[in-house]
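A favour, since you know our structure tokens better than I do. Could you add the entry underneath, on a fresh line?
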Amino acid sequence: MHLLGGCHCANIRFELSGFAPDATIPARACTCSFCQKHGGVWTSHPQGSLRVLIAERAEHSIYRFGTGTADFHVCRRCGAVPVVTSEIDGRLYGVVSARALDGVAPERLQHAQVSFDGEAAGDRLARRARGWIPEVELRVLPS
């Protein structure tokens, strides 16, 4: 099954594959300061694939903080953060905002709060390699 989503203005769109049609979708609310201020609730499928399309490069930016190991893809036009990626051993991994999914019934989301405070960078990358989406295509559409 393909789950679609993206930022509010549709400049950054994504398609997430891997979930069964009736599967519960994990929705992890991160407690870091960035996610707290932006309402970050993330989902991934460790056997899934993710295709991210950026319509206008000039309206897309990357934000990094803390360990500098994750790229938060921010739409400059609407301010949404629909996707986060992390390069690990030459491979791109990702998570998507559960709040940015289109047409997913709220009862399908299984909410949990997570904290990664004190996690060393190496441990963080290993956790992402195990749990994030392992097949990520990030493409900027031609103007």
